[in-house]
Amino acid sequence: MTLTSTPPESRPAPSPIANSLTAGKLPRFAPLGILLGSFVLSALLFLLVWLGNTDADFNIVGTVFVGVVLYAILIWVISRAVEGSRKSKDRLVTALVSMAFTIALLPLVSVTFTTLINGLPRFDIEFFTQSMRNVVGSGGGALHAIIGTMLVTGMATLISVPVGLLTAIYLIEYGRGRLARGITFFVDVMTGIPSIVAGLFAFAFFSLIFNDPGIRFGFGGSIALSVLMIPVVVRSSEEMLKLVPNELREASYALGVPKYLTILKVVLPTSIAGIITGIMISIARVIGETAPLLIIAGFTASMNYNLFSERMMTLPVYAYTQYMNQGADTQAYVDRAWAAALTLILIVALLNVVARIIAKIFTPAGSR
Asked: What CATH architecture applies to the domain 129-367?
């Protein structure tokens, strides 16, 4: 029996294998280029609108929003034409998620941009070295308000952090039964109380103690802020302590370490970064409160370094009074109000930077 074989040159060439996962790819930097192009087109569009009405300010928020929407559309269309349906859907979903993040960020961008533009005209040496004593027009500063904010918020932090942290430790490490459930319930209730209620509580409390219906002093403002601050510290610290693995506690107990020392040497160092972040969040929560401080701390145009005597000005109240009680030189009052708002934002940003540095220093080396 004779076997015949087909000559190599007469065999049909193998057809190329099509791979939909690798065929047709956009260049690596194409999404970035499309994003930048979208922002340029959006900026040109709003620039034309602004040139038609120069009385209004350039709408940077609208520019960013239209830019990300245009990017989502363009990236889907271009990817579908080049990469196919599967990859284009993936890019579209990624663009939509990014767009949602941008929309959530727009209020912050708008507030920051507006505060910078309006606050920089009075962001000078005079603003940080003078008070408003004997100033009825232009000039003056907010030194007394900055000092008051630091003193009132600092005292509120000294009151709130130990109480809140010890309460969280009790709830996580020791608390059982009705007492723990009752504390948790009241912490939840305190988290949602209006800030003005805290101010009214501090005012009524000290009015009854000192029998003075017109009492105003800085320490009362610290008490009002601590009422708002304590539940935030408790909640954030409680969640951080829950994240500490029980195996660490059990290993410490197995070595014969008592419970209080386990908390001090194992639990707290492990969760210190999150606890500090929670404390900074609580400070940022109360440092801008106006209503409670307006009620119990009052306002003044002079310096006051004593928390336990006389009225004390704070930055939120300073910004409020400057804007609401404008004199003959209206623009001077408005400029001081915006400068106070910008100063408050910078203080909060600085506190967050310091908190991150402290957390990085005290975080255990193995968990960095």
From this structure: Orthogonal Bundle (1.10)
